[in-house]
Write a structure and sequence with these properties.
Blueprint: E1 2-7, H1 25-38, E2 46-50, H2 59-68, E3 76-79, H3 86-92, H4 97-100, E4 112-116, E5 119-123, H5 138-150, E6 156-159, H6 170-173, H7 180-188, E7 193-198, E8 205-209, E9 212-216, E10 223-224, E11 236-237, E12 242-248, E13 253-259
Parallel strand pairs: 1-2, 2-3, 5-6, 6-7, 7-9
Antiparallel strand pairs: 1-12, 4-5, 8-9, 10-11, 12-13
Helix pairs in contact: 2-3, 5-7
Bound molecules: fe (ii) ion (FE2).
Fe (ii) ion (FE2) binds next to loops.
């Protein structure tokens, strides 16, 4: 069994002087999310960060992010979104071998697999330099196929930034995972994949991919307006920020969406 928390779309932003302002929205929001996560009675075994961690992919933003996450005692696994720079991210999060050993060439994709208890987490890179949409080239998909084939018997969660299903919000679907069908084709060959978890949408949602349940995660910072009209109104809202908690056992996988807040019990129920 493993409990995997998911923080997403943190969007830490540095100003023109390169400093990340402690009083700014994303910093305060991330502090609240971390504190909320740590207030849960069952402490997650690991935390995965599903992209758009830094707003501009700057080293100063990742350094600040790393410091803000330091209260978390469990391993933290980052992956790239369309706002991220894999080299800058890898340089700051090099304290975990799975992250630092991914490759040394410039803009090598940040892809790796780790074990969390008896569950496997496979992190994929759907980011494309300078583009908002997602794409995994043949090399990335071949790595995914080989990585999944190597451990066929362990329940496996696959993480991406861009979700592999349309969410119905035009603003997001216009910058979708463009070859999600090829990604789904790889996953279908590996029945141990129990869940695909993504970010990008700045909202919790559930969909599916060839029979595999897939979810997106609220942003720790700003939520996107749920407008399913077409073309729709692209906007952020005042909805509560939040994160996700995935409970994975050998037989079931359950996802909880958790608004950031203070979760001490108010009153016992019988
Ligand atoms: Fe984002």
């Amino acid at each position: 069994m493993a409990i995997i928390a998911q923080l997403s779309d943190i969007h830490l932003a540095a100003g023109r002087d390169g400093a990340v302002d402690d009083g700014s929205g994303p910093v305060r929001a991330l502090r609240a999310a971390v504190s909320s996560l740590l207030s849960l009675p069952a402490r997650p075994d690991a935390v995965v960060l599903t992209g758009d961690l830094a707003d501009a992919g700057l080293a100063a933003e990742y350094t600040r992010l790393h410091a803000l996450l330091s209260p978390l005692p469990m391993p933290v696994y980052p992956l790239c979104g369309n706002h991220d720079d894999p080299d800058a991210l890898r340089a700051v999060f090099a304290d975990h071998p799975a992250v630092s050993a991914t490759g040394t060439s410039v803009r090598a994709p940040l892809q790796y697999a780790v074990d969390i208890g008896d569950v496997r987490l496979v992190c994929c890179d759907t980011s494309v330099q300078g583009q908002p949409y997602g794409f995994m080239d043949d090399d990335r998909l071949a790595w995914l196929d080989t990585t999944l084939a190597a451990v066929p018997d362990r329940p496996t969660v696959v993480a991406t930034h861009h979700p592999a299903y349309p969410v119905g919000i035009r603003f997001i679907d216009d910058m979708r995972f463009t070859n999600a069908a090829a990604f789904g084709g790889v996953l279908r060959r590996h029945p141990q994949v129990v869940r695909v978890i993504s970010g990008h949408v700045h909202r919790g949602s559930a969909g599916s991919l060839g029979g595999i349940v897939a979810t997106t995660c609220p942003s720790t910072y700003r939520q996107l307006f749920l407008d399913l009209t077409q073309p729709g109104h692209a906007a952020v809202t005042g909805e509560p920020a939040g994160f996700a908690v995935h409970l994975v056992t050998t037989t079931t996988t359950t996802t909880h969406f958790v608004p950031t807040g203070n979760y001490r019990p108010l009153m016992d129920v019988e």
